[in-house]
Amino acid sequence: MNELLTLTNVSRHFGGLKVLQDVSLAVRQGTISGLIGPNGAGKTTVFNLITGLLPPTTGDIALDGATLLGRRPHEITRAGVARTFQNIRIFKEMTLLENVLVGMHRHLAYGVPGLMFALPSYRAAERRARDRARELLSWMKLDGKADDLADNLSYGAQRRLEIARALATEPRLLLLDEPVAGMNSTEKTELMREIVNIQGRGYTIFMIEHDMRFVMGLCEEISVLNFGKIIAHGDPGQIRSDPQVIEAYLGREDDEVSVTPEEVDE
Amino acid sequence: MLESLDTFWAIYSNLVLSLGTASLLALSIYLTLSCGMLAMANAAFMGIGAYTSSVLTMSHGWPFPAAIAAGMAAPAAVAFLIGKPTLRLSGVYLAMATLAFGEVVRLVVIRAEKITGGAGGLDGIPQLTQWWHVLLAVVVVLFVLARLRRSKIGRAFEAIKEDETAAGLMGIDVNGHKMLAFALGAAIAGLAGVLNAHLTNFIGPQEYGFDRGVEILTMTILGGINSLFGPVLGGIIVTLLPELLRSFKDYRAVANGLILVLIVLFLPKGLWNPAWMRRVLGLQRKGVTP
């Protein structure tokens, strides 16, 4: 399978602080991959570099072989990368439906005359967008609340809305930054199923997650980041038994990684 | 009956028409506010529109429609030029930069005495503004803004207001939309300037200074930016208030400042707040889009 996203020797320094050093990794088309590591390892910085919020100090980031460097965030989204945020960033004053419609912005191809005079082209495009938005909300089991204000949603539902909104940009690669943070175990199980369904529809998913059961259960490939460096890469079995990973997470060699998520979270 | 209407119109026509131009000004700053930007250049844009059109009708004999078009295009073009470097500023820095720009415009008007009449102002502007010009302008502007609100552009504005970073990552060209809001707002302020100048037959640089800028902001903050009705309502109230309180006329600026403070403290969403009204009436919000 070909590589959709590649990071090649990517470094990012903040002044003298080397947040990322020589990070190389690849996400293969159609897979669910994960990026794990202790707090402060630089995981979210990796997402910020991919989505163009920060430029890397050195190295290259490419989507399907074409570099993303020097492109502005909205251009990278249009190239096919969408993301969610660790600290949820939905549009709280809008309804769920409007949130998802915002994601469809550039897929609404009508001009100024069309929108000024509500021409058929405009009405058809808006209707299609609404239908698609409701479909995406239904993927995330939110279609019943389409006209509610996003602010009134529970924490878990806000995270699911963020995923629906990201999918609305019609991405090829979906980046999820701690999708189950703050969710209870029922919500986690539900989201797991929904993410598998998303992958089944042909999307490639790359996630940051602390919840080991979630990551190990979903990801085919996992990279481990510690103090800005990739210390391990492999399938869940390899990661679970990697001595460096165990040490990074637990500080001791005689413990297992397959502990409960709560313990790892701490 | 008809006679008393005539008398009323003779006395109050200027006031009624200035309600229209005030509404236009409030709507012009509504545009940038709805995009999350506190840009304080609208008084200056009004001035640019007023001077551009007045010079064209007085000295160059331009027909009124052409002067209106020029009075809208000139501030929009200036907005485009100053927007490039300033719109990347956020919050209070944008307010400071745009206020400084307003001051520059005022000083340029005073210095360019040969064209603008300097500090003495321009006198004898032909009274070309008819009542229906003002009405038509308000209706057309309301129509355009209402259509924008119901489109992807309106949703993009609101997304940018709520979270610029998230909006960008939804594929929205944040800088492009901010520029659109800024330049379109400038054109509407310019339109208000043109109509106002050709109504009062005199304009001077002091009309487009800091006080006017605060007044425009007060209108829109007072009315609220949740709907298009809010700015219009605010514009009407702020214009009528000094007439109703004649004896306080000297304290107009003080009243504006006081209103601004009270609204920000007690009604941060303005007087016209559909969400709040629906909550009070027990109805559910249906959102901006149909």
Write the layout of secondary structure elements.
The complex is a heterodimer of chains A (266) and B (290).
Chain A: E1 3-14, E2 17-28, E3 32-36, H1 43-50, E4 58-63, E5 66-67, H2 73-79, E6 81-83, H3 96-103, H4 112-116, H5 120-139, H6 155-167, E7 173-177, H7 185-200, E8 204-208, H8 212-218, E9 221-226, E10 229-234, H9 236-241, H10 243-250, H11 261-265
Parallel strand pairs in A: 3-8, 3-9, 6-7, 7-8
Antiparallel strand pairs in A: 1-2, 1-4, 4-5, 9-10
Helix pairs in contact in A: 3-5, 3-6, 5-6
Chain B: H1 2-34, H2 42-59, H3 64-86, H4 91-111, H5 113-116, E1 122-123, H6 131-149, H7 152-162, H8 164-168, H9 174-200, E2 202-203, H10 210-223, H11 229-244, H12 252-266, H13 274-281
Helix pairs in contact in B: 1-6, 1-9, 1-10, 1-11, 2-3, 2-4, 2-9, 3-9, 7-9, 10-11, 10-12
Sheet bearing the most strands of chain B, described? 2 strands, antiparallel
Residue share in helix of chain B: over 70%
Task: Give average pLDDT of chain B, whole number.
Answer: 89
In N-to-C order, the SSE pattern of chain A is EEEHEEHEHHHHEHEHEEHHH
How many domains is the backbone of chain B divided into?
A: 1
* Shape type of chain B: globular
CATH A-level architecture of chain B: Orthogonal Bundle
CATH-derived architecture of the largest domain in chain A = 3-Layer(aba) Sandwich
The N- and C-terminal alpha carbons of chain A lie at a distance of: 36 Å
- Spatial strand arrangement across the major sheet of chain A: 6-7-8-3-9-10
Q: H/E series of chain B, N to C? A: HHHHHEHHHHEHHHH
